[in-house]
Design brief:
Number of helices: 20
GO molecular function: alpha-L-fucosidase activity
Structural class: alpha+beta
Oligomer: single chain
Bound molecules: alpha-L-fucopyranose
Organism: Pedobacter antarcticus
Protein name: Alpha-L-fucosidase 2
Pfam family, one: Glyco_hydro_95_C
Shape: globular
CATH class of one domain: Mainly Beta
Strand content: 15-25%
Strand order of the largest sheet: 1-6-7-8-9-16-13-12-11
InterPro entries: 6-hairpin_glycosidase_sf, 6hp_glycosidase-like_sf, AFCA-like_C, Alpha-L-fucosidase, GH95_cat, GH95_N_dom
Length: 824
C-alpha cells in the first residue's frame, strides 16, 4: 500500500504545507500524491505514446522508470491450430446433444485443445534507474500526472534546493523524455543506468550513449525472436557528463534532458526482419536534435488533439484537496463527483497513451507491464477484455485510437482462415478466446476456458460499429471482407440442435462459466451469448452489404439463417437464460455476464421493443450481484446504464472506486490501485476502460432508434455538463448540460445529415424540433428485429418499469449545428 495511507501523521504535516501550492493550481485533471511510489508499481504513474510506455515511481534518491515497448513479446511468428479437431467434431457434437458433457469435454481436451502453444507473453523492456546521491532526505514532496498535458512530474527539496523531474512519452518524436532541473545552478548530480531481466548486453557508445540490447523469451517451445535495443542519451546544461562501468554520470549540472528510445525487429505479425539497431539509432539521433522545449510543445500539441475533444463536469468536490489515493479510499463515504470525472478522463488518457494509429492494440495491461511472465501473459483475452478496452473509443471521441484494434481484426481474419479450414472444415475465419502479437487463432489454455470459437464474432462487431459513427463507406469497404469472412464461418459451422431444430454453435461455452448441474464443465451448445453474437454478426454483415450494395445472395442466406437461431429465453427465476436449457443458478455470482452481451454492448434487448427481455435482463443482473473483478464491475456500469438505473450504475462506480483488496464478496478484491489503475486484481486495464464507457452510457446513449440524453443520471450528479461526445449516425454532442437532474441544454453537430431523433427526460424546445413517432428512418439507428422471447411458465415476470421519456426529432444537414433548451 501507498505510504500516505500508512503514515497518517506525516501525511498530515506534508498535506498542510502542500495545500498552499496545490490549491493554487487546478488539480481537476491531475492525479497527485504527497509520497513517492517507492517499490509499488501500482502507485507509479503511467505515461505512453501507444508504443513506448513508462511507469514513473517518483522516488527522490533512486528514481525508477519501468520501460515497455509494445512489440516486445515472447516467441516469434507461430500458429497453434489443432488439426485433430476436424475428425473429432461430429462425435463431440453428438455427445453434447446427448447431454454427455464430461465425455464431450474430455474429447475436446484431447483433440481440440492446443497441444502445446497457449499464447505468448508481453514482456518488459527493462528499467531506467537514476541515482541522486544525498537525495534520501527530502522535504516538500509532490508528484502528479497531469492529464491535460500527459506529463508526469516529481518535485521535492533537498536542503534549500528544489529539484523537479518531468517525464513524457512523445508520439511525434517516438521517445521517452525526462527533464531534470535544480533551482540552484550546478546542483544536479546523478548516475543513470539501464537494466533488464532479459539476457542483455549494455554498452556505452561514443558521445556517452547508453545501449541495452536483448532478445525476448522462449515460450511453449517457440523461440524468443523479438530483438530489441534501448538507447539513452543525455544532454546537460552546465557540469559534466562521463561514463563509468556501463553507467552515465552527470555532475554539477543545472538541468539535463534524458532521451530514451527503444526499437525492435518487429514489422508485423509474420515479419520480424527489421534491424532494431538501425531503427533505434534513427529515433535517438532525430530526437536528440530537438530542445526540451520543442519536444514538450510538440508532445502536448499531439496529445491534446485527442484529449481536449471531451470535457466533463459532474460537479465540484469538497475533498478535491486530498491526494488521489486518499480520495479513492474515501469515495464510498461521500460524494466526490470530481473523482468520477477524473477517473473518466484517466480512461481516455490511458487509451490515447496505449493505442495509437499504426501500432498495437492495448493489451490486458495496455502497454504497461513489469513482469517477465505477467498474469495471463498480458495478452489479448477476446472473450470480453480486449473488446472492453475499446468501448470508450468511439463515443468518447477517440476514434483514431480504435484503429489498432480494427487492424488486429483484419490480421486475425488472415490467420483465422487457416484455423477455420484445418480445425473445422469451414469457410471464413475463426479465432478462439485469446490471441497475441502473432495473431494466433487456435484455442488457448484448458478446454474449460479455451473452447470458444467466437472471438471473431465479437471482434468483428467493432468493424461495423466504427462505421455507424463515421458513416464512411470507403472505410466500410476496407473492413467488409473481414466482417463477411467472420459471418461465413458461422454459416458453415452452425449445426441443428435436436430438440427445437435451432441452428447453434457447438462446441462452445458461455465464457468461463458452467452450469452447476454440469459439474463445472463449461462445454455447451447454443449458449445465449453465442446466439446473440451470431445474430449480431449476421445483422451487421447484412447491413454492411446493403450499405455497399453488394452480395445479395449472401444477404439472403444470412437472413434465412438468422431466422433459425434460437430466440432468447426467460427462465424459471425470471432471468434471462444463460444457456439453451434453463440451468441458471440464481446464486451464481460468476464474474462473466456473457448472456447480457445482448443488452450491452449489442443493444438487442430494449425497454421499448423487448420489454420482457429487458425485465429478465434486470433480474439476471440483480441475481448476479455487484462486487466482482474490476472488469466485471466496469461492464456492470454499462449494463445498469442500459437498464436506465443511474443510481445502480453509480453504485458500481463506487464499488470500482474502492481501494484494491477492500471489496468483499465471491470475487473479492476488485477495485482501484493508488495510481487509478483497475484491479482485477491484479492490474488489468479493461476495468478502467469499461467504467469510462459506462459513465458515457449513463449520460448519453445512441442506439435503439434515438440519441438518448441522460438515460441513467444518478442522484449524485444533479448538475453537470459534458462536451464532445460522439453518437452513432455521425452526430457530435458538442454540449450537454443538465441542472437539478433535468436536461437543460444540448448542442448537436451533424456530420452526415439525416434524421436526428432525441429521447429526453423532459420537454425541450428549439428550431424545427418536432415530436417524433414511429420508426426512425435514419439507417444508422435501425431497430433490431430480434425473435420474440420464450418465457418459462414459472418466470413470474413483472412488466418492465420504464422511465417516462419524450421523443423529438429534427432533420439535419451535414456540418450544421442544432441547439435545444429546456422548455418549462
Ligand atoms: C478472462 C477472465 C479473467 C481474466 C482473464 C484475463 O479469462 O475470466 O477474469 O480477466 O480473462
Amino acid at each position: 500500500m501507498h505510504n500516505s495511507i500508512r503514515n497518517k501523521g506525516m501525511v498530515f504535516t506534508i498535506f498542510i504545507s502542500l495545500t498552499i501550492s496545490v490549491s493554487a493550481q487546478n488539480t481537476d485533471l491531475k492525479l497527485w500524491y504527497n509520497a513517492p511510489a517507492e517499490n509499488v508499481w501500482e502507485a507509479a504513474l503511467p505515461v505512453g505514446n501507444g508504443r513506448l510506455g513508462a511507469m514513473v515511481f517518483g522516488n527522490p534518491g533512486q528514481e525508477q522508470i519501468s520501460l515497455n515497448e509494445a512489440s516486445i513479446w515472447s516467441g516469434g511468428p507461430n500458429r497453434n491450430d489443432n488439426p485433430e479437431a476436424l475428425n473429432a467434431l461430429p462425435e463431440i457434437r453428438k455427445l453434447i446433444f446427448e447431454g454427455q458433457y464430461q465425455q464431450a469435454s474430455k474429447m475436446a481436451a484431447q483433440h481440440i485443445q492446443s497441444k502445446r502453444i497457449n499464447g505468448m507473453m508481453y514482456q518488459p523492456a527493462g528499467d531506467f534507474r537514476l541515482v541522486f546521491p544525498g537525495h534520501e532526505n527530502y522535504a516538500g514532496y509532490y508528484r502528479e500526472l497531469d492529464l491535460e498535458s500527459a506529463v508526469a512530474k516529481t518535485t521535492y527539496k533537498v536542503g534549500n534546493i528544489t529539484y523537479t523531474r518531468t517525464v513524457f512519452s512523445s508520439v511525434p518524436d517516438q521517445a521517452i523524455i525526462i527533464h531534470l532541473t535544480a533551482d540552484k545552478p550546478g546542483s544536479l548530480t546523478f548516475e543513470a543506468s539501464l537494466l533488464s531481466e532479459h539476457n542483455s548486453k549494455v554498452i556505452v557508445a561514443k558521445d556517452n550513449i547508453l545501449y541495452l540490447s536483448a532478445q525476448s523469451s522462449d515460450k511453449d517451445g517457440v523461440k524468443g525472436a523479438v530483438k530489441f535495443e534501448t538507447g539513452v542519451g543525455i544532454k546537460q546544461k552546465g557540469g559534466t557528463i562521463s561514463s563509468d562501468n556501463g553507467n552515465l554520470k552527470v555532475s554539477g549540472a543545472s538541468s539535463a534532458t534524458v532521451y530514451i528510445s527503444i526499437a525492435t525487429n518487429f514489422v508485423n505479425y509474420k515479419d520480424i526482419s527489421a534491424d532494431e539497431k538501425t531503427k533505434n539509432a534513427a529515433y535517438l539521433h532525430a530526437v536528440m536534435q530537438k530542445s526540451y522545449r520543442r519536444l514538450s510543445k510538440d508532445h502536448i500539441t499531439a496529445y491534446q488533439k485527442y484529449f481536449n475533444r471531451v470535457q466533463i463536469n459532474l460537479g465540484k468536490t469538497p475533498s478535491a484537496g486530498l491526494p488521489t489515493d486518499q480520495r479513492v479510499a474515501e469515495f464510498a463515504k461521500g460524494n466526490d463527483p470530481q473523482l468520477a470525472a477524473l477517473y473518466y478522463q484517466f480512461g481516455r488518457y490511458l487509451l490515447i497513451s496505449s493505442s495509437q494509429p499504426g501500432g498495437q492494440p492495448a493489451n490486458l495491461q495496455g502497454i504497461w507491464n513489469n513482469k517477465m511472465n505477467p498474469p495471463w501473459g498480458s495478452k489479448y483475452t477476446i472473450n470480453i477484455n480486449t473488446e472492453m478496452n475499446y468501448w470508450p473509443a468511439e463515443e468518447s471521441n477517440l476514434s483514431e485510437m480504435h484503429g489498432p484494434l480494427i487492424e488486429m481484426v483484419k490480421e486475425l481474419s488472415e490467420t483465422g482462415k487457416e484455423t477455420a479450414r484445418v480445425m473445422y472444415g469451414a469457410a471464413g475465419w475463426v479465432t478462439h478466446h485469446n490471441t497475441d502479437l502473432w495473431r494466433i487463432s487456435g484455442p488457448v489454455d484448458a478446454i474449460n476456458y479455451g473452447m470458444w470459437p467466437m472471438g471473431g464474432a465479437w471482434l468483428s462487431r467493432h468493424l461495423f460499429e466504427k462505421y455507424l459513427y463515421n458513416g464512411d463507406r470507403e472505410y466500410l469497404k476496407t473492413v467488409y471482407p473481414a466482417l463477411k469472412g467472420a459471418a461465413q464461418f458461422y454459416l458453415d459451422f452452425l449445426v441443428e440442435e435436436p430438440v427445437k431444430g435451432w441452428m447453434v454453435v457447438s462446441p462452445s461455452m458461455s465464457p468461463e462459466n458452467s452450469p452447476k448441474s454440469h459439474q463445472e464443465i463449461s462445454i455447451a451448445a447454443g449458449t445465449t451469448m453465442d446466439n446473440q453474437l451470431v445474430f449480431d454478426l449476421f445483422t451487421n454483415t447484412i447491413r454492411a452489404a446493403e450499405a455497399l450494395n453488394t452480395d445479395v445472395v449472401l444477404i439472403d442466406k444470412l437472413k434465412k439463417m438468422r431466422m433459425r437461431l434460437p430466440p432468447m429465453q426467460v427462465g424459471q427465476y425470471g432471468q434471462l437464460q444463460e444457456w439453451i436449457q434453463d440451468l441458471d443458478n440464481p446464486n451464481d455470482k460468476h464474474r462473466h455476464v456473457s448472456h447480457l452481451f445482448g443488452l450491452y454492448p449489442a443493444g438487442q434487448i430494449s425497454p421499448y421493443h423487448t420489454p420482457q427481455l429487458f425485465e429478465a435482463a434486470k433480474n439476471s443482473m440483480i441475481q448476479r450481484g455487484d462486487v466482482s473483478t474490476g472488469w466485471s464491475m466496469g461492464w456492470k456500469v454499462n449494463l445498469w446504464a442500459r437498464l436506465q438505473d443511474g443510481n445502480h450504475a453509480y453504485k458500481l462506480i463506487t464499488n470500482q472506486l474502492t481501494p484494491a483488496g477492500v471489496n468483499q464478496g465471491e470475487n473479492s478484491g476488485g477495485g482501484t490501485y493508488p495510481n487509478l489503475f483497475d484491479a482485477h486484481p491484479p492490474f488489468q486495464i479493461d476495468g478502467n476502460f469499461g467504467c469510462t464507457a459506462g459513465i458515457t452510457e449513463m449520460l448519453m446513449q445512441s442506439h435503439d432508434e434515438a440519441i438518448h440524453l441522460l438515460p441513467a443520471l444518478p442522484d449524485a450528479w444533479k448538475d453537470g455538463s459534458i462536451s464532445g461526445l460522439r453518437a452513432r449516425g455521425g452526430f457530435e454532442i458538442e454540449r450537454l448540460v443538465w441542472k437539478d437532474g433535468h436536461l437543460y441544454e444540448v448542442v448537436i453537430k451533424s456530420t452526415l445529415g439525416g434524421k436526428c431523433r432525441l429521447r429526453v427526460p423532459n420537454q425541450i424546445k428549439g428550431r424545427k424540433l418536432a415530436v417524433a413517432a414511429g420508426n426512425n428512418p435514419n439507417p444508422f439507428f435501425q431497430s433490431l428485429e430480434v425473435k420474440p422471447a420464450i418465457i418459462s411458465a414459472t418466470a413470474g415476470l413483472r412488466p418492465a418499469e420504464i422511465k417516462d421519456t419524450l421523443l423529438y426529432e429534427v432533420d439535419t444537414k451535414p456540418g450544421k449545428t442544432y441547439k435545444f433548451k429546456i422548455s418549462q
